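Supplementary Methods, section 5.1.

A reviewer requested that the exact input to the structure prediction be made available. We therefore reproduce it here, unchanged from the version used in the analyses.
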Amino acid sequence: MTREEKIARTFVELADTLVADFDVIDFLQQLTVRCRDIFAVTDAAVVLAYPGPQLYSPAPCDPSPALTRVLDLALREGPALDAYRTATTITPGELATAPTAWDDFTAQAREAGYAYACAVPLRLRKEVLGSLLLLRTTDSPLPAEDLSVAQAFADAATIGLLHARTLQHADAVNEQLHTALHSRILIEQAKGFLAAHRNISLQDAFNAMRRYARHHCLLLTAVAQHVITTGELSGPPSAPRHPAEGASSE
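The structure derived from this sequence is encoded token-by-token as follows.
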């Protein structure tokens, strides 16, 4: 698949939120996966302040402990927070010359092996939901084309989230966003369990859970809980299905 085809496919995925079984956690995870695949970045993560003012970060699909510590600091300082607060792209670039206000974030990021960081806001006109953080292990600037497409992805994701809130059940979408941080921990635990049980990588374990969730019309968190409870993916999870799929058969 060419780069252009991957970009087009990503926009289609980001538009696919007006469905009965929309899973906001899976939606945000997929955004970070596509950024890592398409752009010249080592890692990508979403930082959200929605609903409410408190920032949190649904982690990428395969975070290292070092990246998790970087994300924890990114909620308090650094490019992701600044992009959210200013609703503008933050591209200081090389962490060796980052602003002094980012000292803790910069130190943790460099310790984790990153040399470059930037962020684009998740925005629609005056409404800002959060930001998309992009990290590289090289200190060369992110190509301007990549940065433009990243902002377009962030804009499309914002529109998708707002449409899901408006045109579906707002309370259900808000509840998913409120529990995203706890779901991240649950998914990470399930990935580790499944990876160890099957002797596969964490990425392959996540992909297996995601395929299972889609095949059975289940939320990714329900599948993660099923893995932790039963130790495998075989057999239908006992967790509830998406509301629109509750009456369907396997």
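The longest strand covers residues 127-136. These observations are discussed further in the main text.
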